[in-house]
Each structure stands twice: as structure tokens, then as C-alpha cells.
Amino acid sequence: SLYTGSENLGCEGYTLDVTADGIAISATCSNGFYYAFQSIKKMLPANVMAGVKDDSVTEYALPVVSIVDAPRFEYRGFMLDVSRHFFDMDEIKRIIDVMSYYKLNRFHWHLSEDQGWRIEIKSRPLLTEKGSMRAETIIGRTDKYDGKPHGGFFTQEEAREIVAYAADRYITVIPEIDMPGHMLSALHAYPELGCTGGPYEVWCHWGVSKDVLCAGNDATLKFIEDVLGE
Fold first, then answer.
1. Residue 6's pLDDT band (boundaries 50, 70, 90)?
2. From CA 108, how far away is CA 172, in angstroms rounded?
3. For position 47, what pLDDT does the model report?
4. Is 132 exposed, middle or buried, given 0-12, 13-18 or 19+ CB atoms closer than 10 A?
5. Could you read off the pLDDT of 31-58 as tens digits, one per residue?
6. What is the pTM of this model?
């Protein structure tokens, strides 16, 4: 049974009572009900959550419990850097599923770096045509490289799909465009935006580059308006 109530627990809080007679959930808002169901999922066997079917089991018993739950922190975040190491759509959706299981509600999506530009900007096509791919990647803390091109990016349609997928699980997506530093992928695509004129390459290693967007260049301001506007 579902009931509207628990006003003192806020929008994300809920009460959950499992008895011999059934399950009763009370919450003020839809995300409270959603989090209650996540708690129920935690009471099920691990193979159910892993998607491993057991044909010998036709029903599951839940423990008798009484739960009053509300988050201590309003912001419960997870940051994913897809710039240094690319994750595809299925991998990101899996991460969002795990986030929802643990009642996290902010997905910080790191979309640009020295090592790769990952979001389509229609007015600046070279960002993904040139800036989304690096030639290779350094191996650990050595001076050796793997010799494998690494890259990928998300179209705006794919980004909208991720935003909607997360919203269905009460997760807000926070996109990050890192600037004025951490911009070698963009400078490789548009070298006129740098302070030195380059040449610039998408970085294959880690660290802090001295090359940044040139704040004294009016073209830089137009670039920022284009990127953040889209």
C-alpha cells in the first residue's frame, strides 16, 4: 500500500513497513516512494539485483522491518570523468542504475579535458572531429605508451538521453566543461584560442599544462558563449 504523508521527512524521505500482512510505504513526494522501493530491492537476494535468474525460486520473502529514512545530505553526488577515459552509453546507464540503488542524486559529468573533448557542439564541429581523439595513452606511472588511439564523444541527442535516463531515477546531471585550463583538446581543434598559438596536441599523458584559453582574446569569449549556450 502507498500513502501520502511523512511531511516531516522532506521530499526524499519515506517510511517503509513490512509485516506479515504486506508492505506499506508512506512518502510526501514521488522520489520518496522511489527511494523506498530501492530499500526493498536491497532486501532481495543478490542474484536478483545482478539479473541472474534462478528458475528454482518462484517467490521471495522479505524480512519484517519498520524503516524511517531521510537523507542527511541534500547533495549526494558521483563524478565520472569520461575525458581521460571514455565510457559509452551502456556503461553510463549502468553507473546511473548503481547510483540510484544507493540513492545518489547528482551525476557530475566531466566532459572536457586536455586528454579529450566529449560533447558535440554543433557550432564548433572541430571539437569532436579533432579534439575527441588522442593518439595513445601513457601506461601507469611509466614513460611508456600503449600505442592505441583512444577517443569517443556524445552527440547532443545522446546527452539528452542520459539526462532523461537519470531524471527517471531522480538524478540530476551536472555537465562540466573545464576551463580556462585543461583545454588542450579544444586548443588542438582551435589553436587561435590559445595564448601562444601552439602547436597543440590532445595530451596522451597526465599533469597540468601551461597552455590555457587566452582570456584576453575576444574570440575566446565567443567560444565560451557558443559552448555553454549549446
1. low
2. 8
3. 77
4. buried
5. 999 999 999 999 988 777 766 777 777 7
6. 0.92
